[in-house]
Amino acid sequence: MKALVVILTAMFTGAKLAGAIAWSWWLVFAPVWVYLGIGVAIDFLILIITGIYVLISHYEDRKRGE
Predict the structure, then answer these.
(1) How many angstroms separate the CA atoms of 58 and 54, rounded?
(2) Sign of dihedral through CA atoms 20, 24, 29, 31?
(3) Which pLDDT value is given to residue 64?
(4) d(CA 3, CA 47)
(5) Residue 7 has pLDDT above 70, yes or no
(6) Measured over all CA atoms, what is the biggest interatomic distance in the chain, rounded to whole angstroms?
(7) What residues form the membrane-spanning segments (predicted)?
(8) 3-class SS of residue 45
C-alpha cells in the first residue's frame, strides 16, 4: 500500500506542477493523509485493546487476591 501512496502522490504532484489539475495542495497530498490516518487509527485500536487487556488482568488479579 505504501508504494501506491508514493505513486499516487508523485502523479498528483506532477500533474499539479504541470498545470493539468487545479486541485489544492491538500487534495494533492490526500493519499499521504489517508495512509497516515489509517496508521493512527490502527495504533489507537491497539492502544484500546491493550488497555482493556490490562484492566481485565488487573481485575482478575484483585478478584483472586480477595
Answers:
(1) 6
(2) negative
(3) 79
(4) 27
(5) yes
(6) 72
(7) 32-56
(8) helix
